[in-house]
UniProtKB/TrEMBL annotation, chain A:
<dbReference type="InterPro" id="IPR002346">
    <property type="entry name" value="Mopterin_DH_FAD-bd"/>
</dbReference>
<dbReference type="GO" id="GO:0016491">
    <property type="term" value="F:oxidoreductase activity"/>
</dbReference>
<dbReference type="InterPro" id="IPR036318">
    <property type="entry name" value="FAD-bd_PCMH-like_sf"/>
</dbReference>
<dbReference type="InterPro" id="IPR016167">
    <property type="entry name" value="FAD-bd_PCMH_sub1"/>
</dbReference>
<dbReference type="Pfam" id="PF03450">
    <property type="entry name" value="CO_deh_flav_C"/>
</dbReference>
<dbReference type="InterPro" id="IPR016169">
    <property type="entry name" value="FAD-bd_PCMH_sub2"/>
</dbReference>
<protein>
    <submittedName>
        <fullName>Xanthine dehydrogenase family protein subunit M</fullName>
    </submittedName>
</protein>
<dbReference type="InterPro" id="IPR036683">
    <property type="entry name" value="CO_DH_flav_C_dom_sf"/>
</dbReference>
<dbReference type="InterPro" id="IPR051312">
    <property type="entry name" value="Diverse_Substr_Oxidored"/>
</dbReference>
<dbReference type="GO" id="GO:0071949">
    <property type="term" value="F:FAD binding"/>
</dbReference>
<keyword id="KW-0560">Oxidoreductase</keyword>
<feature type="domain" description="FAD-binding PCMH-type">
    <location>
        <begin position="1"/>
        <end position="220"/>
    </location>
</feature>
<dbReference type="Pfam" id="PF00941">
    <property type="entry name" value="FAD_binding_5"/>
</dbReference>
<dbReference type="InterPro" id="IPR005107">
    <property type="entry name" value="CO_DH_flav_C"/>
</dbReference>
<dbReference type="InterPro" id="IPR016166">
    <property type="entry name" value="FAD-bd_PCMH"/>
</dbReference>
Amino acid sequence: MRPFTYERATSAEDALTRHDGETYYLGGGTNLVDLMRLGVETPARLVDVAHLPYDEIQLTPDGGLLIGAAMSNSALAADRTVREGHPMLAQAVLAGASGQIRNMATVGGNLLQRTRCSYFQDTAKPCNKRDPGTGCPAREGEHHNLAILGHSEACVATQPSDMAVALSALDASVHVLGRAGERTIPMDEFHRLPDNEPERDTVLEPGDLVTAVEVPPLGMPSRYRKVRERASFAFALVSIAAALDVREGAVRDVRLALGGVAHKPWRAWRAEEALRGRPATRESFLRAAEAELDAAEPLRDNAYKVPLARNLIVRTLTELAERAEAAEPGEGTTS
Amino acid sequence: MDSESTPVHADITLVVNGREHRLSVDTRASLLDVLREDLGLTGSKKGCDHGQCGACTILIGGRRANGCLALAVAHDGADIVTVEGLARDGRLSPVQEAFIEQDAFQCGYCTPGQLCSATGMLDEAGQGWPSTVTGDLGSEPVLDDDEIRERMSGNLCRCGAYVGIVAALREASRRKEAAEA
């Protein structure tokens, strides 16, 4: 591992002033330290931001949540307000990693973790994300768990965070402190599609520090479900974050995002559009899933993800609709 | 040696199993390496060195963590418990006793990590923290076998002593509840 200097930031502003071209911010280190050991990341300086006072959840005036970026994944998932008001967010966090890693990992670090594409993590292999211009062996090689949507000639990697998928469906936004001051980035615009710049996972600029994630109130039943190759401690083949508001048998509102299918959490805008105002039936859900997945461009060995994603959408929405039906007070009642 | 390869050192203080240690560490050193190489506490094991096997699990501030992914320099002032610190006054901890009674190991390489992880896990469950197999997130989790397996998934045992480990933690959890009732 390349030697580096270590400094502990005393404030967010202090962190920014300490950031130069070869600096990385350090949160829990669960991904960064591993990548440094692998030689994938080679910072000359680490600025530790895990001790900054962004380690709790504040309630916003509209009933939403402002989640501090230095909060641990465990603390987020254990929080009563999150479990009751935004259960899919707690479920998404709990679906990721192990107990040990969730205790160490921060919310900000979770958002910024890098892809687990095996070529990216292997410095003996070419990779456009790690070393721009060297090529993408995954396209013809081992890609059974890589992208089916929005990939490019340059990169077919997937974004690995479960939490980010739930945040996308929740219309969350990321609070960032940068050289030009504070700004807020909608979650759907935070991660990028690879295009011809796969080295950029997000729209963040050098020195930008994530300070919080803001989540508006949800007000409808939600669910995060993850399909993976073993029952625990594995990344998603496909995952879904879904929320559904059903009134008198019709879809009043719906939120859908998919994980494990693209270079960013895939907000299923087309499926949502196809569902609003439609009967909350299996047929509608199937049509909406197919509308979304029309855009899929599976690779040689990951075409299975298309029906998997379709079935996951249909099954999860059907379950949420059944729950809404059971909870509805009766015909003609509005609230 | 050019500046690219010159090691950088930092002075830190660690409290390990109740004892304070002042150390000069290479910024690249993990807590696992410092515990084993500098402090001679070789109970914590290096399995994968990537956070995947859990053999290095220790308690930092009472919470279980992978020692291999924790940079020592980033834990200046931390309160750490390793497997060497689980027993108190010559008495094994309830989790250690249950492991012996239920034959929860074979070769023993993963056992220190399993013990520290289980100790942290029982505390998390006692605080009402849910897991991905907890059906209703509004309720208090009950530590049945599915919950134990899920919560211990960050610790691999290549001998396959899982049946004994689950039995030991079922028993340790029962005794902990009885002691607190």
